[in-house]
Amino acid sequence: MSKTLTGIGASSGIAIAKAFLLETPDLTVEKTEPEDQAAEEKKFDDALASAKGELEKIKEKTLNDLGEEHAEIFSAHLLVLSDPEFVDAIRGKIRDENVNAGYGVKEVSDMFVSMFENMDNEYMQERAADIRDVSKRVLAHVLGKKLVSLAEIDEEVVVIADDLTPSDTAQLNGEFVKGFATDIGGRTSHSAIMARSMEIPAVVGTKEVTGEAEFDTMMIVDGIEGTVIVDPTEDEINLYRKKQEEFAAKKKEWAKLVNDATESEDGHHVELAANIGTPDDLEGVINNGAEGIGLYRTEFLYMGRDELPTEEEQFEAYKKVISDMDGKPVVIRTLDIGGDKELPYLDLPKEMNPFLGFRAIRLCLEKDDMFRTQLRALLRASAFGNLKIMFPMIATLEEFRQAKEILFEEKDKLKADGTDVSDEIEVGIMVEIPSTAVMADTFAKEVDFFSIGTNDLIQYTMAADRMNERVSYLYQPYNPAILRLVKMVIDAAHNEGKWAGMCGEMAGDEVAIPLLLGLGLDEFSMSATSVLPARSQISKLSRAEAEEAAKKALDMETADDVKAFIEETFPSEVI
Predict the structure, then answer these.
(1) Which residues does the annotation mark as catalytic?
(2) Domain check: are 232 and 164 in the same one?
């Protein structure tokens, strides 16, 4: 009898295939006192070298298959295996406590994993997953055990696992691995992001799929609805084969829109842009017909390395993106480090609540030299296309004025040196703090544009950490309070003849899109793979009807009321 499990749809699409259970070999270790301590240290050093060699190969494969941003994950893994705090702690435990190598690896890695897991933000929790991943690889070599290689799968399967590490996901061959489902994980985990890039259907966070599936059990993974069916009936398989065909037909229809402008049914144009992390993401942006880049997250230039990027390195990266977009707008956000992203080489103090702490523009205004280097690189790159500069985490008008003053100082210096700099650069801010949204009418007199960062705006407005499962029910993009803040920002921009965009997850949400169209949003920026579905959806929407719906939604009481109302108001082929 079939059983349906509910999880989180992490990557769209439907997979139907036999289960392949990813089982980790028994890596249990007992504490012993070795007779030859030097031999134990050598066993650890050999295991470390073998693990590094494997990770170098995985990194190279990932770079070739998926690009630099995903390969950086394995740069971070290699940094862990070169980190003296980690490696020397293991050597010290083997030597000082006279224990076997396996016990030393397990004890130290468990300590680090526990430390990072207990830090209440997503980036740190992902670091725990990285340490667990690399430690498992080292420990397997110490114990002489072979880890299952997903790269060796040579028949059509759905991979079932408690969790998939980044190195697991990088080895997936899309020809044979039709999808995956896991017990744990979320949409923002490395494996989920990589699955979307590889277009492999995935459902994560089912809590129990490993306990329900067995090797060769037929499975259905519905990454659209976030469900997994274990041992489906023939009728269910036939139903989902039809859904597969419908999804494939939709993708073909979407592909026809790649060169079209984005217009509503009644002729209102909006701009559909893409969010990127590195120049390697440009191929997806161009192939999916984005009309610009609404958010280039520059922090990826700073991560996975042991020193700040130079002005020249940054200039080349920004220049490539701006040039390759061939005159289309490119919004580049200045460094947004802190909160869920850290740079070890900056040696910043630990904070009780890093999301509300010393991060983004606050960090850049204090670390003046680092900020000026980035601004100079951006200004030099502006001569090669249509650059718009965006400052993140702006809370006060004084912060914006200070950042803009530094920008103009660097612009004047470059021009005095005879360097080409565009005079058409728009300078805007990311609206992610409720106070900034409330004061949008004042900001609108001085900024050139707004881009609403809903991921943070929602968690700050609702006072709920979006990574904390116990309060995740408060992460409500359709809450009337959020919609009213969004409307305030859009109206403030329009009253001053400026434009307003959105670069948070909400911009690509099919329930939110009619609301945002009705509220008057000018630019929607999302992952590249969401652009064509969004363009198709907007082409079937009447802006006039969307405006009426948005007005009613603003006066509703709950997020559930808004969601139900939108789903009732617009036909199923639109939502």
Answers:
(1) 190, 503
(2) yes
